[in-house]
Amino acid sequence: MCGIVGYWGPNEPKKVILSGLRRLEYRGYDSTGVAIFDQKELKVFRSPGKLVSLEEKIKNNHFSGPAGIGHTRWATHGEPNEKNAHPHKVDSIAIVHNGIIENYVQIRQKLIQEGAKLSSDTDSELVAHLLVKEIKKGSDILKATLNVIPQLHGAYSILVINEKEPDTLLAFKNGTPMLVGLGQKEVVIASDVQAIIEHTNKIVYLEDGEIVLSHKSDAQFFDIKGKKISKDIHEINWTTAMAEKAGFNHFMEKEIYEQPRALGQTMAEHIDHKTKHVVLKNLGLTDAELLNFNRIQLIACGSAWHAALCAKYFLESLAKIPCDIDIASEFRYRSPILEKTTLFVTVSQSGETADTLACLRFAKKAGLKILSICNVQHSSIDREANARIYTNAGPEIGVCSTKAFTAQIVALQLLALHLARVKNTLNGEQISDLVSGLLALPSQVEVCLNHDKWFKDAAQTLAKYKGFLYLGRGALYPIALEGALKLKEITYLHAEGFASGELKHGPIALVDKDMAIIAMCPKDELYEKNISNIEEVRARGGQIIAIGTEADEHLKNLSQYYLAIPKAISMANPILASIPVQLLSYHLACELNRDVDKPRNLAKSVTVE
Ligand code: F6R
User: Buried (b) or exposed (e) across 92-122, using 16+ Cβ within 10 A?
Assistant: First the structure.
């Protein structure tokens, strides 16, 4: 979750590191810090709160050295104050850390017994002490690292800078990401590609147990035994412009608006526009292999879990394959029955979510084939999966997932159609009709984006409700859950999502005139049932904000506010209904002056369990 960046090269390290931290701030923003060489001295500056306070603190400092490291923190151990901020410097060593050292209590006790002076409450500082201990015994930094790694349990990416060797950066990892960018006579080491693409698109992905030791711009790689290894260099195609706000007020707003293009890009690679068939060319599973699967297990967290829940409706109805969905943090701990005839599908925007990755490894160990639905190419999940469908939504920076979420749904729908062809549960004509329906999505989403102005104007009135209940049936039920999550995340208002028919089994007690009910009621086979549920809520004074298909006068008459989505195939409705739901959260958050892209307590890319 924390962001890490380190630099050696001809540019001003302070500038490069602060710019990298700005791009990584979405990973955590409780405190920030840098350790940068000034001549031969490593100077450390740290600050609680967001990056701006660190920038202010060091704005007049000039550093004359070639290298430095920086960190933006999402606190796990120890309050987000200055003493717990990274880097942690002990003697000549300064480190930044992302992850959790699970055996930190034992390490801490031992170090205290040995007389170590600890200056923070973090697990991270302990790693610096362990390295210093090894160095005092005569090890160089590489040897010290090789001796420390076996002492650490947990997930971590650690970047080390050493006062005795100002031209050297060292990094190692287990479980959380660490990338090495190899530029022209410069090296950038970071937890995320966003901090590197400004300098180079040539990236080496460090695997668990590997170490990079970079002297000047010469990066060398070692395995856990200290043996030199060669690594592939990947050229990535994301650009810095893709990660800019491009005139929008927030990344979330920009990403909501990017959805027509994101959905188009997700489909473009996988659809034969002539035959209107789904062609998952790079899936990595043959038709024969697909026919061997008699069940699908989907695993994800948060919004990605909602996308997976939504996909169940299509995988089962179109491809007639039983489908189970689990929250990644629950799955491994309920002794699940794993059968090799199950296709194991992970859904993740970042490809780094610790719980999802752990499930992937758990299932892979049991011999299951893993299909990854992922947005970030070469991420840990992408690299470890056997097969893949990319969502191609481009970088998602806003902590609140928007374009990646709708792209996940469409990618899973393409999978359902692909399986339907392989299993012959739909004929060619049926498939091409549905594909044509999906291809209309980008222009239909554009129409939904027109509600933006209405939400902007209505935000002040909507902000007065004491709570928000989201209702949906069928594939719209996961969108009700998603709507409530979006609202909670960035407005901090109370919101819950329910299957419409479930309301009368308890939650309807919450309904009164101060409660807003966002009812998703498109013209589909469940329309009449939805209308009955809306009547039940109305009878108890609930204020209805309805999302329906085109000019639905009946629904309009039942509602305080009515928002139309275009007439579409029913597969498109969950995606179309997501747009007003996202806009509602966005404008309410702006109205309430919330930090939309950096909501409190959250971080993008949850790399701790
Ligand atoms: C909510 C949100 C999170 C993520 C979840 C999984 O807006 O973004 O709930 O969906 O943390 O992240 P990924 O998809 O990166 O695995």
Answer: bbbbbbbbbbeebeebbeebeeeebeeebeb
